[in-house]
């Protein structure tokens, strides 16, 4: 099943039946449910005994193949680094050499070779290709995929999921039917989170109103990292920025953080949310992302709005290199020093 706010889109797609477009582009922010929607749709399209709502039965031969990751007509295109991570997990954590964070042309060519075999699925049914995130395709890979979208094979459905659809080639976007996933109403989101035993009300605001993202954060590791960052930023004026950088470098390298997927881009994103809330409070509004730290933010009202905005602009420079800093320690030192100078001055 799917969360209730995704059901209208599901019903609209499944009502199309055999008239389903050959390519769907699922868009929306990370945590909006588009990947979950795409996975469920891929399973349903290959299932031979879907239920009354169009969901996969979970019991037929095709469903068992999908669950085992070896369905001959189910194709998943993800960055090479993600493929390597899955392989390492299966092999007990053995590390391989660094892989690309892009979807590269060789992956697309391998997909096309597989799709060229036969005129349809293994039993004459559909073939389904799920690409996530679609914006991870480099230019060569995107151009290669475009040919498949322009001349789709018989009974082949492409499902592309993207946090940043504007990064896709316009020609790819134009060949897909777009389904946009937005945050659900707050009351519905909070009710769903309570049903999932997520008791921290502030997480929904921190996750930008996205309950699936909020649920992901409701673990001891994520909650602890968020709380510690908020405490450190609230005391930034009294902390040594260089020592703070060393502490956060260590946290980024900690085993539990690595296993949870906590990385430099996430840290930068969380710092941006703190600065945005600081700007909101300075302008007389209430914090959105760190509502549970409203008192700490209110205590910084001596910092003018301009200082918060300038810090946000400087953070954009760090964001551009957050995925691959040449020296993480120096990167963090520069980050915290620039914030310290901007905000401590007041």
Automatic annotation (TrEMBL):
Domain of life: Bacteria
GO MF entries: 3'-5' exonuclease activity; DNA-directed DNA polymerase activity
Transmembrane parts of this sequence: none
Pfam families the record matches: DNA_pol3_delta2 (PF13177)
GO annotation (BP), single: DNA-templated DNA replication
Annotated SUPFAM superfamilies: P-loop containing nucleoside triphosphate hydrolases (SSF52540)
InterPro entries named among the record's database cross-references: DNA_pol_HolB, DNA_Rep/Repair_Clamp_Loader, P-loop_NTPase
NCBIfam families: holB
Name the UniProt record assigns to this protein: DNA polymerase III subunit delta
Organism: Candidatus Dactylopiibacterium carminicum
Gene name in the database record: holB
